[in-house]
Records
---
Amino acid sequence: MGLREMKKQQTRQAISHQATRLFLRHGFDRVTIADVAAAAQVAKMTVTNYFPRKEDLALDLHEEFVAQPARTVAGRAPGESALAALRRAFLDAVDRRDAVIGFSGADFARMITGSPALVARLREFHEEREHALAAVLAEEAGTGPDDVVVRVASAQLIGVHRVLFEETLRRTIAGEDHDAIAAALTGSAEKAFGLLEPSLEDYAVRR
C-alpha cells in the first residue's frame, strides 16, 4: 500500500470510528453527516465520498459482508459442495467470533435493531450477498443468475446466514457473552445447514 492509499485508509477509519462513537452515544437517527464530519475534522463531502449512505457509516463491513459467501463458494475445495463450504466457513467464523456474522457489543446490536433505517439497510445487504452468490453458482453451472435452481439455492443458503445473524444479535442484546453465543450458534448452524442437506448436499460440488 502506497502512502496515498494508506492516508485514505486512515481517513476512512477515522470517519468510521467517530461515526460509531456518535451513533452509540446519541443514537443513529439523531446523528447527522455534519456531526460526523465535525467530529472527524473533515468536510461533509469527504464523509460522503467514503460513505455515500449514512447507514454505511454504521455498517462499515458492507463489502466483506456481501462478498464472503460468494468468495467461500468460489474457493471451495475439490469434492466440496457449496453447502459444505458455507457451513465450514460459518463455523470457522464462529470460532473467530467474527464481527461479519454478528459478533458485536450489546450497545452496537441495540443500535442496529433499534433503527428502521439500519434494519432496512441490512436487508439490502442480505439481498446483495444472495445475488453475489447466485452469480458464482450460475457461472460454474453455465447458466444465468435468473436460473430457478440457482436462485432457489442461493436464497436458501443466504437465508440460513440471515437467520443465524439475527440470532447472534438477539442473543447479544439479551446479555449473553461471546462464548455462550458461539456455543448456541454452533448448534443452530448445524441444524440450519442440516435442513438443506436433502436438496443441496450434492449441489454445486467442485469437480
---
Amino acid sequence: MAAGLLASALVTQPASAAGDVASDPLATTGIAAKNIAALWLTEGAANLINAQPYNVETTVPAKHVSTGGPTADTKPGIVPAIGDEKKTTSTSKNINLPKTTGKVFFADGVKKDPATGRVVAVNPRWCTATSVQSAYRNLVATAGSCVYDTETNSATMNYWVFVPGYYQGKTPWGVYVGKQAFTHYDFDVYEDGDRNYAFVNVYNGISLGQGAPAEITEAEYNTYQKNGGGFLTRKKTEKVDGKDVTKYFVWKFKDAGRLGDNVGGQGFAYNQKVGSSVFVFGYPSGSHPDGNAAYSGKTLKWSYGKTFAAKASAIKGEELLGVKSSFTGQGSLGSAWLAQYKNTRRLGYLNGVTIGVSDSDGNKRIDTSLSSYFDGETYGVYKAAANLWTGSIA
C-alpha cells in the first residue's frame, strides 16, 4: 500500500463552541473517512490486531476517592433507546451482553514499513465505547479522554474509528469512522474530570469488499494520492517479459449501513438519583496493582452495583459517581454505565462512562470505577451531537 498523502486523512480545525458545548472535526470528507477505514481494515486488519489498550492515567489514588456531592442541575430526564421507544419490562438472571458496545481505535500517526511497503499505524490504541440513540442513528458515546488528546494537547485523537462487537480483527458490523466530536467546553479546554465524556457522530459503517484490490490506471492512482487516498491504494512492480512493470490497485469497500440500524443504540439518562443501580459493560485489560492479570481485553465483560458520590482530585473530578467494580483501568476507559438495563432487549439508559478506577481499600486490587455525573449540561452536549447527519462514504 502506498503511503500517499498520509497527513491528509484528517482535516484539523480549531474547536468551535456554543455555550457549554465544544465541537471538533475528525474526518470531514468522504475520501478522508474512507482513507481512515482503509488504514484499519486492509492488510488483514493488522493495525486493529496490533492495537493496545489505551494507557492514559486512569488509576486514581485511593485517598482521593471519597464522598463528593454530584447534584442534579435540572429535573431528571431520559431518552429512550433505539427500538425501545415503547416501554417494556423483563427480568432474567442471565446477562445478555449488549450489541451496542465495542472498541474505538486511534493512533498517533502512520509510517511506511520499509520491508513490506505497508502503511502501519504508529502506537495504535483502543478504548471502550457504545452506540446511543440519535436522530440519524449515528452516535457513539465514550470517555472524553478517548477522543480528546489529553496527553499531548493536540486536539482530537487521529484516525478515530468505532468497531462494535470487535474481536481479534473481526469487524462483524463494519468500521464506523468518526466525523464530528462533541464534549463539554470545560473538558476540551481545562480537562475537567467532572466533564470527561464525549459523543461522536460516525459515518455509515464500511466493510472491505471480497477478493483482492481492483487494478486501476496510473492516472487513477495519482488522483487518489492527490486527494488524500493513500491508504486506499497500493502499487506493485513485477517482471513482465523481463521488464519491470508497475501495476496500481485500489481496495474495494461496501456500505455497511447506519450504526443504530445494525446494533441499536442505548437510551440516555441524566440527573438521576445517586444510589441507582447500573451495569457497567467494557473491555478491561491489564493487571491489578498486585500483578494479577484478571482480564485480557479481548471479550466484553460486565459488573453491577449501586452508584455513590465520589471525587478524585488526581483527575480533576470533584463531583463524580463511583460504583464497585473490579475492572482494571486499561481498556475499560469509556465503558458504558447502563441504568434500567433490559436483559432480553439488551437495552437501557446510558448514565455514565468510566473515566478512572481505584483501589479504594489499599489491598492492591482495583475495586471501584469512576464516571462524571450526567446532568443537564451533559444532556446539552448529547443533544447537540444527536441531531447531526453524516451519511455514507462507500
---
Amino acid sequence: MSTEHYELLHAEGTTTPIKGWVHGVPLEEQAHRQLQNMAALPFVGPWIAVMPDVHLGKGATVGSVVPTRGAIIPAAVGVDIGCGMAAVRTTLRAKDLPDNLAQLRSSIERGVPVGNGPGGDHRRMPDSIETRLTQSGLVQQLEAIKARHRKIRTDKVDRQIGTLGGGNHFIEICLDESDAVWVMLHSGSRGTGNMIGTYFIERAREELARRVLGFHLPDKDLAFFMEGEPLFDDYVEAVSWAQDYARHNREAMMSRVLHEMRHRLPSFQLEKMAVNCHHNYVQRETHYGESLLVTRKGAVSAREGELGIIPGSMGTCSYIVRGKGNPDSFHSCSHGAGRVMSRTAARQNITLKQHREATAHVECRKDASVIDESPAAYKSIDAVMAAQTDLVEVLHTLRQVVCVKG
C-alpha cells in the first residue's frame, strides 16, 4: 500500500506522528495546533490520521482519526454523537422528476420536521416512527443510563427521532452519472445525543480536577476517562446508545422522505445500493495487531470494500465511495468537504447574491438564514477528493437538485 499521499505534519513537543492527507487543501494554524495538543497526550497513538476536510473543532479537530490506548476523550467524539449519512438509489430517473421541484421540497419539509428548537420536533409522531421507537428498546435503554446519571434527560427521545435538526444537516434529492435518482440525508442523535455528549464532557473535566497527572494537558477540553473507571464504561454505553439512536433517526427520516416522494412521483422501487454510516463516534478496533479505541470526529470508516458517503455542500457534488482499507489512515476517509470559514465569518463575508448564484441549479433555501451553509463556506470538494485517492474509490458522483435545510 503506497503512503505517498500523506504528509508528516509538524508535531512539536511530541513523539506521536501526525499523518495528514492534506495535499492541495488548506490546514489552518489553529487546527494544526489542536492536532499537536492531542498528539502530546501519552495515551494517544501510534499516530493521528488527519483527513483532507480537517478544520478547527471544539476540543478536538474535525476531520481527525484519534486512536487511544486505555482512555477516551469525550470532547474528541463531540456532542453530535453518531452523526452520519444515509443514501439510497431508486429506480426513478431524472425525467420522472416534476418541473416544479419547489412542491417536492415543500412536501418533504412537511413530512420531516426540520430546524432546531421546538419547531423542529414532531407535533404528532407518525405511527410508523412510534412503532420503530417502541420496538427498538431505545427508551428503556436510555432510562437505564439515566438511573445512574440523573442529569441526562429523556424528554426529547420520542419528539426528535425521525427529525432533521439544523446547521449542516440536510436532506437531498440527487442525480448520479446515469441520471438515477438518489435520496441522501445527513443527521445524528439530535438533542439527546447533544445532552449526553455535553454531560460526559463536563464529568471528564470534573475528573480532571481530581487527577494527579504525570504530564501536561494543554487543553482542558481534552479531559478523559481511563479504562477501568466506572465513568469510562458508562460513557461507552451512552455513546453506543446515541449511535443506535442516530442510525434509527436516519432510517426513520429516509422512510418519511420516500413516503412523500411516492405521493408526488411515479411508482418506483429501491435498488440494492444503500449506505448508512456514522462519522462522529468511537469504537474498539484492532490495528497492527493492537486493540485501540478509535475516535473518528468528522471521519468515516473506509475498510476495504466498505461503502461510504462523502458530501460536498449545498451547491457541489457528493460521492458514494468504496473504502480501500488504507492502514495508515486506520481505514478511514473524510466525512465531507470541511469548512474554510466559521459560521460567523461566512455570515460576514458571503452575500445573499453570491449564495443565490452558487445554488442557482438547486431547489433550496435562498434566504440569509442559510448563508453560513453556502458553498463558499466549504473547501473545494474536488481538492478534498483528490487528496484521498489512496483511501477511497469513487463509485458514484451525485449532483443535488433538491436540498432541504433546517
---
Amino acid sequence: MYPMDLKQIIATVQDDFQAVDHEVLRMLDSRVPLIEKIAEYIISSGGKRLRPLIVLLVAKASGYQGNKHIKLATLIEFIHTATLLHDDVVDTSDLRRGRPTANAKWGNAPSVLVGDFLYSRAFENLVHVGDMDIMATISKATSIIAEGEVLQLINVGKPETTEEDYLKVIHGKTATLFEASSLGASFLGGTNPELQDSMQIYGLELGMAFQIIDDVLDYIGNADELGKNVGDDLAEGKPTLPLIKAMEFGSPEQRSLIADAISNANRDHLEPIVSAVRDSGALEYCIELAETKSKNAIRHLMVMPASIYRDCLESIAHIAVQRKN
C-alpha cells in the first residue's frame, strides 16, 4: 500500500486540514491591508503544507482527542512561511514555486516585516495552545532555525565546506521545524517519553532527508516542476551536498570548476558543472543518504500503535525521497 500519495494522506485528516486552513485565514487578520496581502500571497502559493500535516497525523496517531493540534499546526505553518519570506530576502530570490517571490513583488522591507508579523502571530497562537513542553520545543526550534540560516550564510562562497558543515546547516534551517512539528504534536497525546523521543527523531530524520533531496532536485529537476531554475543554489554560492560530493568524487578539473563557481557565485559554466554532478556519483551518494535517513525515520514510527495515521506518516517518509518537486 506504500506510499500513499499526498491527496490520500490529507484525506485521512480532511476535516482537521480544512480547520487549519480556516485558522490560517483567521490568524492573518490585520489592521494593515498590506500585511494580509503579502501573507496570503505566500501562504497560498502552492506549498505542500507537510509540516502542519505531520502535526495533525502525529496527534491523531498518539491518540489525542482535543483540538489544540489545529492551533499547533497553524503556528507551525506561520513559522515556516516567515522563514520563507526572510530566506528569499537573504538569497535575493525572485522565484518560488513558480511565482515571483514576495520581495520581488513588494520589496525587501515589507517582506521582512510581514515575516516578523507571522512569527509574532505564531507565538500568539502558541500561548493559546498552553503547553509548556510545546512552548519550549517551538521556542528552541526558532532559535536553531536562525542559527542554521546564519551558518548557511557563513558557508556561502566557501568551496571548502564539508559534508559535516552542510549537515549542520540543514539540521538547523530545515530539519528542526519538522522535528518541532512531530515532537510538539506528540506532547498533545500525553506523557510517553519513548513516543516523544521517537517522534523527535522521526521529524529530524525526515527533515534531513527532505532537504537533501531538495538539493538533489536542483540538478535533476526542471524549472516548471520545481518552481525555480536548475542551478539556483550554485548561482547563490551555496555549497550544497551534491556540489561537495562532486568535488570529492570528480576529476581535478571538475573540482576546480565547481570551486570557482561557488567562490564567485555564478552559473557561467552551469552545463559542465551539472554534468560533473550527474556523472561523478554525487547524486547517487546524496539519494542513498536521504533514503537511509528516511528508513530511520520510519523505524522510529514503530513505537506507535498501528493505525492509518501511522501509515500516513510512513508514506510521508517515502514521499520525501521519491518526490520530483
